[in-house]
Design brief:
The complex is a heterodimer of chains A (120) and B (108).
Chain A lengths: L2 E5 L3 E2 L5 E8 L8 E7 L6 E6 L5 E3 L7 E6 L4 E6 L8 E8 L7 E4 L3 E5 L2
Chain B lengths: L4 E2 L2 E4 L4 E7 L9 E5 L6 E4 L13 E6 L2 E7 L7 E8 L6 E3 L3 E5 L1
Parallel strand pairs in B: 2-10
Antiparallel strand pairs in B: 1-3, 3-7, 4-5, 4-8, 6-7, 8-9, 8-10
The chains are: A mainly beta (120), B mainly beta (108).
């Protein structure tokens, strides 16, 4: 059974870069799935950040595209998120997730989430 | 901002039926999936595709779609169904995902 685990700093300074990694266990990141990042600011709804396929193909939320990079490391069976020029508005719980059906959007595996606070 | 619109909150009496809707132009082309989220927990997929339930999801959850509106129905709501529910779909371009604004379901 595939499991996902987010890791990274819980505190990032304003104007800095948020960096998170999602480790995939129980399955291969090179399987026919897309791998996503989703965030949720405190008390608010879910926001899709972007997704990546093991080939390196990516799609990003247009509202974040200029600041986001998602990459994959097949040798470590993990994928990563970088979000630059962060502000307090980027404070959120960040989830990594697996989408096992691109068109029907079957996001069937989620990490537990990691809280990132942007503050000096 | 989300292009999928949901009612902010609905309530349902224990054992009764509740329907949650999700509206958006992309739903004319793509199916919606639905997620249940309880406080402090990650979302859980409850419906995907035309009307498919992942293993372990009770059959009181069902999905449907008509035009630009997708619906999640809980038939015989239980206390444990009290949660936030989000719809999710490809956007009209097909290149991005979009989450609905979320609906808080209260079971009375």
């Amino acid at each position: 059974q595939v499991q996902l685990q987010e890791s990274g700093p819980g505190l990032v300074k304003p104007s800095g870069t948020l960096s998170l990694t999602c480790a995939v266990s129980g399955g291969s990141i090179s399987s026919s799935n897309w791998w996503s990042w989703v965030r949720q600011p405190p008390g608010k709804g879910l926001e899709w950040i972007g997704e990546i396929y093991h080939s390196g193909s990516t799609n990003y939320n247009p509202s974040l595209k200029s600041r986001v990079t998602i990459s994959v490391d097949k040798s470590k069976n993990q994928f990563s998120l970088k979000l630059s020029s962060v502000t307090a508005a980027d404070t959120a719980v960040y989830y990594c997730a697996r989408n096992s059906d691109y068109w029907s959007v079957k996001v069937d595996v989620w990490g537990k989430g990691t809280t990132v606070t942007v503050s000096s | 901002s989300s292009e999928l619109t949901q009612d902010p909150a609905v309530s349902v009496a224990l054992g009764q039926t509740v329907r949650i809707t999700c509206q958006g132009d992309s739903l004319r082309s793509y199916y919606a999936s639905w997620y249940q989220q309880k406080p402090g927990q990650a979302p859980v997929l409850v419906i995907y595709g035309k009307n498919n339930r992942p293993s372990g999801i009770p059959d009181r959850f069902s999905g449907s779609s008509s035009g630009n509106t997708a619906s999640l129905t809980i038939t015989g709501a239980q206390a444990e169904d009290e949660a936030d529910y989000y719809c999710n779909s490809r956007d009209s371009s097909g290149n991005h995902l979009d989450f609905g604004t979320g609906t808080k379901v209260t079971v009375l």
